[in-house]
Design brief:
alpha/beta, two-stranded parallel sheet, 5 helices
C-alpha cells in the first residue's frame, strides 16, 4: 500500500514539458522541509499499486507524473511496471536524495541543497532535466557531476508575495541571460490558475 495525497489531471506546469497534459499522482510525505514548499502533501489515503494504475488509466493521456512531497520514499518498481502495462510513460519529480526504480522513463531533479545544505545533496547521477528553484542568490551550483539529458532550468521561487515574485522573476531572467546554460522555467499552472 502507498499513501496517496491526490490523483488529478492537469497540464504540466514547469520545466521541459510545460503545457503537456498529464495525470499527476501526488504521494504523501517528504524527507526534507523546504521553507518555500507550496504543496500540502502530508495527508493521504492508502492505495494499492493496482488501485493507482486503475485511477490513472481512466485518463486518456499517456504522460503520468509521480510527485510529492518526495515520491522516492514510496515509489516502487511494481507501480512503474503497472503504469507501463497500462500504456503510460512515467515521469518523476524528485529532490534526488533517494534512488528511484530504474524503469522510470523521465526524471526531473529539483535539488534542494542550495537551501538546506549538504544533507539535501542529490545522489542521482543521470536525470532527464534539472530544475533549480532560484531565490536570487548570486550563484547557482552547476551540478556538473550529474548527467542532464534534456536541459537545465532555473525557476523563480514563489514567495506568495506578488512584488517579491516579480523581483525574483526579473533576477532569474537576468541570471539565465548571463548564464545561457540555464533555461527559464515559470510555473504556468499558477499563471493559469489551474491545479
Amino acid at each position: 500500500m502507498l499513501k496517496v495525497n491526490e490523483i488529478f489531471y492537469s497540464l504540466q506546469g514547469e520545466g521541459c514539458n510545460s503545457g503537456r497534459p498529464a495525470v499527476f499522482v501526488r504521494l504523501s510525505g517528504c524527507n526534507l522541509n523546504c521553507p518555500f514548499c507550496d504543496t500540502m502533501h502530508t495527508t493521504g489515503q492508502p492505495m494499492t499499486e493496482a488501485d493507482i494504475v486503475a485511477a490513472v488509466a481512466a485518463y486518456e493521456t499517456s504522460w503520468v507524473v509521480i510527485t510529492g512531497g518526495e515520491p522516492a520514499l514510496q515509489l516502487n518498481a511494481e507501480l512503474v511496471d503497472g503504469l507501463h502495462r497500462a500504456g503510460k510513460t512515467v515521469a518523476v519529480e524528485t529532490n534526488g536524495t533517494l534512488p528511484l526504480p530504474p524503469q522510470v522513463d523521465w526524471v526531473t531533479l529539483s535539488p534542494k541543497d542550495l537551501f538546506l545544505g549538504p544533507q539535501a545533496a542529490p545522489v542521482l547521477s543521470s536525470v532527464s532535466e534539472l530544475k533549480v528553484v532560484y531565490d536570487g542568490r548570486a550563484e547557482v551550483p552547476e551540478y556538473e557531476h550529474i548527467d542532464v539529458q534534456h536541459g537545465r532550468y532555473l525557476q523563480p521561487c514563489d514567495t506568495g508575495r506578488p512584488d517579491d515574485n516579480a523581483d525574483l522573476v526579473a533576477k532569474t531572467v537576468a541570471y539565465c541571460l548571463a548564464h545561457p546554460q540555464w533555461n527559464l522555467s515559470l510555473q504556468i499552472h499558477k499563471m493559469l490558475n489551474i491545479k
